[in-house]
Amino acid sequence: MNTLFNKLLETALQPLQGYEGYQELQSSLGSMLGGTPWQPPVDIVETETTVIVYVEVGKSDGIEISVFNNKFTIKGKKSKPYRTTAVKSEIYYGEFERTVILPISVTSEENVSLKVEHGVLAAVIDKEKELQNSFTVRVVS
What whole-number distance in Å separates Cα of residue 122 and Cα of residue 1? Predict the structure, then answer.
């Protein structure tokens, strides 16, 4: 249902795309009307010993990562790297949230190490340890 709603909202706002404030308007309307915030792109890479979740977060404030079994959720707010008004704005800034299903269950904070480099967060999850059910990690940048 959320996917249908988001498609309808995107279609309705299409004429405004590219103008300053478009992304904030889309995010605010979506949140107020029950839609979801913007979802950043994610890559999930699995090796023999780890699963690595890469999330494009740009310059973000207050990133929070929650893990419950095999569900990985990241929330935060992407800040603009400039303070002036853009002539054309296509890059999303504002609140975001993304949940992905991992190929393994994660059971402890000790299994996860985090690093943000060049606007991409890398969550490296150790596959070797089996521990508790859920936890939340705050990323301080």
Answer: 30
Q: Region of 4 please: left (phi>0), alpha (psi -120 to 50) or beta.
A: alpha
Q: Which positions ≥6 away from 95 have C-beta within 8 Å?
A: 27, 31, 37, 38, 75, 76, 77
**DSSP class per residue in 56-68:** E--SEEEEEEEEE
Helices 22-32 and 2-13, packing angle to 10 deg: 140
Rounded CA-CA distance 55/74 in Å is: 9
Looking at residue 47, its pLDDT comes to 92
From residue 19, give the alpha-carbon distance in Å to each of 11, 45, 86, 90, 131: 15, 35, 8, 8, 48
Q: Closest by alpha carbon to 111, among 132, 100, 130, 125?
A: 125
CA atoms within 13 A on the CB side of 84: 3
Closest CA to 76 of 58, 59, 100, 96: 96
- Interval 20-30: pLDDT, tens: 565 556 555 65
